[in-house]
Amino acid sequence: MLNIKYIFCILTFCCIATGCRFHLKQPPVLAPPLQQLYIKTPDPYGQLTRYLRDYLKMSHVTLVSTEQEAKTVLEILHEDVGQQLLSVSGTQQTRQYTLTYSVIFQVTNPQGLILSPSQTVTKNATLTVQSNQILASGNQTSLLYESMRKAVASDIINRLAGKEITTVVNKAAISTPITQ
User: Residue 81 belongs to a domain with what CATH number?
Assistant: First the structure.
């Protein structure tokens, strides 16, 4: 009897979830010219580049090893981290910082012609540090920056899939056929 109730609850949940059009999040679909992409970055083995590669592979993008093989190039122009002291408690025991991570990127064709002007993606996080936890705050800072890198990489992919870049890249592909 308990199994029947359990199965009924599971079936009811599934019906409700599908009835409200619930679907697991799918990776964004990129325009055809972005399906064969080269990532040009000053730090090709950095965390941001790894996250970008992972997200692009989930979107079924072919990453090529040279600009000449690509239909389009994702160029990371600048990557910046920073922190700013927000507040200090009256007893000087607690400090609060704002951590900032920003990336400037653009999309070009293999010949270097800019298809989409540079865009900036910025993420912020707040870090509270107690005076007796100074050593642990370094690890927490690293984790926050890693989390912000993941979020920025995801935002870049979403912008690549967005209407603005898709339109520009498709127009460029039609007006100037790219030879391989």
Answer: 3.30.160.150
